[in-house]
Amino acid sequence: MSVRAPSADSDAALNVAATYTVLGFSLPYHIDRVSRMLPKLEIRLFEMAREPIEEGLLANRYDIAVFLTSNNVNPDLAAETHLSSKRRLWLSSKHRLLSRDNVELKEIADEPYIMLSVDEAAHTRFSTGVRLPTGRE
């Protein structure tokens, strides 16, 4: 896939859809940077969940979208992963598993937990073979 960048003096608009997590944490720096490089580019931001973003991309309402791709199953969309993050297990300072270097997901399956509700966190695909670092690295 190739993208042709507009020249700095051209008038253009870019419709960008993003989920709330990406829009709040990842995009501000990049939007600011692009705005300074291309001051005449009008960047229109649209915040929404992944499903309407996918539908809007297929309907050509958005030029580009930024969202967590781990749940994207639509074969009609081309997706590229730019950043990835490891799953981390955060434990209290006196938890019995804290002394371990690695913990298997099955070992914590029955433990009480708090899951952050961030862009479909409850639906993110987990693998039972995942090793979770305990943060002692």
Give a description of the structure:
- This protein is of the alpha/beta class and 137 residues long.
- It folds into two domains: 12-71, D-Maltodextrin-Binding Protein, domain 2 (3-Layer(aba) Sandwich), CATH 3.40.190.10; 85-137, no CATH class.
- Helices cover 22% and strands 17% of the residues.
- The chain contains four helices and five strands; from the N terminus they run E-H-H-E-H-E-E-H-E.
- The strands form two sheets. A three-stranded parallel beta sheet has the order 2-1-3, sandwiched between helices. A two-stranded antiparallel sheet has the order 4-5.
- The longest helix is centred in the first third of the chain and has 11 residues, at 27-37.
- The protein is elongated, with a radius of gyration of 19 Å.
- The chain starts with 11 loop residues before the first strand and ends with a strand.
- Mean pLDDT is 79; it is low at 125-137.
Quaternary status: single chain
Portion of residues in beta strands equals: 15-25%
The string of secondary-structure elements, in order, is EHHEHEEHE
Shape: elongated
Distance N to C terminus: 38 Å
Using only C-alpha atoms, the radius of gyration works out to: 19 Å
Note the main sheet: 3 strands, parallel
Number of domains: 2
Alpha plus pi helix count = 4
CATH homologous superfamily of the largest domain?
Periplasmic binding protein-like II
Helix/strand structural class: alpha/beta
Compute the average pLDDT.
Answer: 79
